[in-house]
Structure formats: C-alpha cells, structure tokens
Design a protein that fits this description.
This protein starts with 10 loop residues before the first strand and ends in a 29-residue tail after the last strand. Helix content is about 5%, strand content about 35%. It contains four helices and 24 strands. It folds into two domains: about 130 residues, Immunoglobulins (Immunoglobulin-like, Sandwich), CATH 2.60.40; about 200 residues, no CATH class. By secondary structure, it is mainly beta. Strand 20 and strand 21 form a beta hairpin.
Length: about 375
C-alpha cells in the first residue's frame, strides 16, 4: 500500500486482493489491540466515503494498520446457487480519522455495502497482530453528482451525430393500455382519457439520479434517417399514440440531460427530460440534472422560425428516450396500429448498462 498523502483526511485507495499487502497473509493471533466501535460513515458519494470509529486508548500506540472488510450487501436468495465471494480486505496504514475510502473500480453508485474494521500491528517478521472485528456497519453509495453527469453528457455529445427534423412525439403500448382501465396499467386514469405519470424504472446507469425517483411519461421521437418516417417496429406494443411536438416541447418547456447508456449493443441511448417551467418535474430536475439550451444542444432542439412556427430536430446517432413530466390527455393526439414487429428484445425496461463500454462509462462506475 502506498503511503497516504500527508493531510488530515487521508485517502485509502482500494487495492486488488493480490496487492502488495494482503490482510489475509501473515495474520497472527488476536493481540491486546483496541477493537473499533461505533463505526461512523459520512460524506458518502457515488465512489467514496469517509469512515471513522471510536476505540479504547489502551494499546493504541501499537497500531500500525487498519484492516477494512468491505463487501456488497447481496440478496441471499439471489446468491443461493453462487459461490460466496471472498471478503475484500483493504489495508491502510494507521492515519488520523476520519479517512476517505475511494475506488471507482470497486465502489459502484447506488449500491449497498457492509463494512467492518480491525486494528493491526505489523511485527518485525512481517506478520500482523490483530484485534477482533468491529460490528458490521451498512451504508449505500450515492447517485452521480452534477460533475459526474456533466462528464456523461460530454461523452454523449461526442457521438450524437447530425440533427434530423421531426414533427411528433410518440408512445407505443399494448392495445389495452389505450382502450380500458386496467390494474396492469397504473399509468392510466380510470376514465381512460389521460396518460398519468409513472416512476422512472432502473434502466440505464446505476448512478442516474432520476431512476426510481422522477415521475413522468416516456416518449420517443426518433425517425428513420433515410426516409424521415417513424419506425414501424417497436419493443413496447403495436399501438402508437402520436402528438404534435409543440404540445410537449415549446418555449415554456425546460430540457435536461438524464442519462447515457447502452445494453451490450452497438447503439446508445440518451435519456432527456422535458419539464414545463416551474412544474414539479422541473423543480426536481433543477440542481440535479444538467440543463440544456432548448434551441442549441446535440440531442433535441426546438427553434422558432421568422413566422413564429416551431421547428424540431433530434440527433441521428443515438436513440432518444424522452420523459415528459406532466400527464398527457389522449385527445391531444391520435392512436393507431403500427405495421411492424414487436421486438421485445429491444425493450429498455429495467435494462442494465454495459459496464465495460468505453463509450458511455465514466470513471465512477456504471
């Protein structure tokens, strides 16, 4: 382990299990060392946290290292047929507390972890004397910060491609969604006149602050690059609601960047949020998501012509998923059957991001 930087808040860089020092090698019997108590976790980000604890003064002068056992908190049912992961022992030289644990290649955003600590004294022969383990503490890493989302935005901008014109937003669903109230479709009202808001699912980047929190309605706007027509295949259903673009996107609508991801395929998705000014969704997005210039960005634009009419364009080389944050009345558009296939394999419902893709991942994990 490298020497921690000489500051009051030292950083502990996470090491491979086969690093220079391993907490599993050369461990002696439990010595008369203080046991960490009252583990305190603070300053949690998507890829770091600060840790401190209390301990008796007796034997503190012997401590040379801390051993930290950091593990993902897994669902036991999910792991019942898997080999139990070896615990991840992190070794840090004894430094003033609290200290920062940071490691983007290990810590993932929005992930629950358990942590326990031992104090240790390194002997002349290289072995360690150790204390008993502390009690286990639990914590969950945070969402991407605005800084991380800006990094993701810049990666998305790099591949967005040229802009193509479009005139309508559309939403594909099963026939029943548009025809009757059903317990299967809680995003419809009882009178079947409005599409209601639903909480954003867990698709996309693990650290996106909109997943499981933002309420809205998903729409698409992509067109076929060679014809300008709407695609006739859909993963979500053979019936399509179409609405003129200016009903959802105009100069009273704010636009935000929400996510950039892929699903082990060559094409990439960008999630955008359209929120009417000062609406509940707009209030949620401000300060959490990067706001885009509605008339000048790489993904989705609304510009006004000299005659006052609005013109709309979308990026060619990414698939846009647009979340509108207010209910939408079906009377504002039309519903019709599309002629293509229902490609269920292309559904992004709860789809997980490819953590190995260099195009859409940043330095803080998926």
């Amino acid at each position: 382990m490298e020497e921690p930087p000489p500051s009051s808040m030292r950083s502990l860089q996470l090491q491979d299990r086969e690093g220079k020092e391993s907490a599993d090698s050369g461990i002696g019997d439990v010595d008369d060392l203080p046991v960490p108590q009252q583990i305190q976790i603070s300053n949690i980000s998507c890829d770091s946290f600060k840790i401190s604890w209390d301990m008796d003064s007796r034997g503190q002068e012997k401590i040379t290292h801390y051993f930290i056992d950091l593990n993902k908190k897994e669902n036991k049912k999910e792991n019942m047929f898997k080999h139990k992961d070896l615990p991840t022992k992190l070794v840090a030289k004894a430094v003033p507390l609290p200290m920062t644990v940071r490691g983007h290649w290990f810590l993932s955003p929005r992930t629950e972890y358990t942590v326990a600590v031992q104090t240790a004294a390194k002997q002349r022969d290289g072995d360690y004397s150790i204390s008993q383990w502390s009690e286990i503490a639990e914590f969950c890493t945070a969402d991407y910060s605005s800084v991380h989302l800006i990094q993701l935005l810049h990666k998305a901008e790099a591949i967005a491609g040229r802009m193509l014109p479009f005139t309508v937003f559309y939403r594909d669903q099963q026939r029943e969604y548009f025809q009757q109230a059903s317990p299967s479709y809680r995003s419809r009202d009882a009178q079947c006149c409005r599409m209601l808001l639903a909480v954003k699912d867990d698709s996309g980047s693990n650290g996106s602050p909109i997943s499981g929190k933002l309420e809205g309605i998903f729409f698409s706007c992509n067109t076929e690059f060679n014809t300008g027509d709407l695609p006739q295949d859909s993963p979500y259903g053979p019936y399509r609601f179409q609405i003129n673009a200016d009903f959802l996107f105009n100069h009273n609508t704010n636009i935000y960047f929400g996510d950039f991801y892929c699903m082990y395929m060559s094409y990439h998705y960008v999630i955008l949020v359209l929120a009417p000014d000062s609406s509940k969704g707009d209030v949620f997005c401000k300060g959490r998501l990067p706001e885009l210039d509605r008339s000048n960005n790489c993904f989705l634009t609304c510009t006004r012509k000299d005659d006052g009419s609005l013109v709309f364009h979308h990026a060619q080389d990414v698939i846009l998923e647009v979340i509108y944050t207010e209910p939408v009345d079906l009377s504002l558009g039309t519903v019709s059957r599309i002629s293509g296939h229902q490609l269920m394999s292309l559904s992004t419902v709860n789809a997980k991001k490819d953590p190995s893709c260099k195009t859409c991942n940043i330095s803080v994990g998926r």
